[in-house]
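Retro notes
What went well: the complex prediction finally ran end to end.
Inputs used:
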Amino acid sequence: MRLSEALAMLRVARPPAPYGAVRLARCNSIEDVARVARRRLPLGARAYLDGGGEGEYTLRRNRAAFDSLEFLPRQPREVSEVDTGTTVLGERIPLPIVLSPVGAPRMFHHEGELAVARAARHAGLPYGLSTLATTAVEDVAAQTGTPLWFQLYIWGDRGVIREAVARAKAAGFRALLFSLDTTVRSKREREKRAGLELPAPDLRVTTLLEGALHPGWSWHFMTSPAISFPNIGPPDQRSLSVMPAMFDGTVSWRDLDWIRELWDGPILAKGVLRPEEAVAAAEHGLDGVIVSNHGGRQLDHLPATIDVLPGIVDAAGDRLEVLVDSGFRRGSDIAAALALGARAVLIGRAHLYGLAAAGEAGVRHCIDILAHELRMTMQLCGARTIAELEPSLLRHRGPADPWIAAAGHG
Ligand SMILES: Cc1cc2nc3c(=O)[nH]c(=O)nc-3n(C[C@H](O)[C@H](O)[C@H](O)COP(=O)(O)O)c2cc1C
């Protein structure tokens, strides 16, 4: 080979791109982004992001369940044109993805929900703002122009909820998500071990050490306004101290009837795991359900949502839209849920890792990864549209063959 040919094969080094862009460019999967996020966050924030309830069985089960699923592709099929678009609550969106509600996302990046909402708008996807958002509903609506849904936690003082719903309505929010699974808050052992004891985090030597080891995060955390919850209660009661009183175990279906009277737009019940709850949701006049175990953060020893999804889709029939979340990290996970009848998938940690890694650009990158993977999975399965993702494309892998397991190949 001549020297000129060898030189032509060498890539010319490019000038360095901004720090976040370099980190993101090397991330090809959500797990890659998660690794960057974990390096950026101190222990307490990592525990809040990655942790689950008690022994974290549900958290592990959420991922393990996808390992039991296999695709049976239809091939060869002409799939050069693929449409990943769908309709959710009457609105056409380019991907079957909604960004999950998350309390206090400013724990992960100082721009918090504004960064997430901007990334959602860029992708044309809805974003569910949490009752425990750290930015006011009016500001998120005015500054981002995203299709917004509002997630509701209900607790003792119903007047606070009435006011929050009225504000969300006035700000132009399109749908309500009513969370059923947080009547009381679960025991988060990983958070406790990290000293993240709510409402007053423990200040330990390790807290200070972790702060020093993550100067970028610490700088923004210390120079930004203190975390508060501007969508609930009077201004002097919007700090972390409200949390214990919030989840007082008094929620019932009567509250859903009450909310149905307050809100004339779509309402989804979030946290449904039993078919009869989907039936009840329809009878109470709701528009849909979200099959969810809260990302493994509430009751431990729950089933993975992908396993209970088909029964709930059957029970819902055409009376309700069925969405699903908990454990979705790949486009193929999303394709599997759609094949089993879900209309769309909510992503929690799969957007939070991006937020923690690089703010709005990080969330955008995560959406791009999932969009690419979903499109590729559809093509390799021979599905040109979301409607062509149907149950026969999937099979549940039975228990491992005992001979293979004994030989160490299982
Ligand atoms: C850090 C964190 C905070 C959350 N806060 C809320 C919340 O305020 N309201 C709510 O309904 N769900 C909340 N969730 C649950 C998510 O909406 C969603 O159900 C869950 O994250 C889905 O699982 P995944 O993270 O595996 O995608 C939270 C999840 C995380 C990771």
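What we learned: The chain has 18 helices and twelve strands.
What to try next: split runs per interface for comparison.
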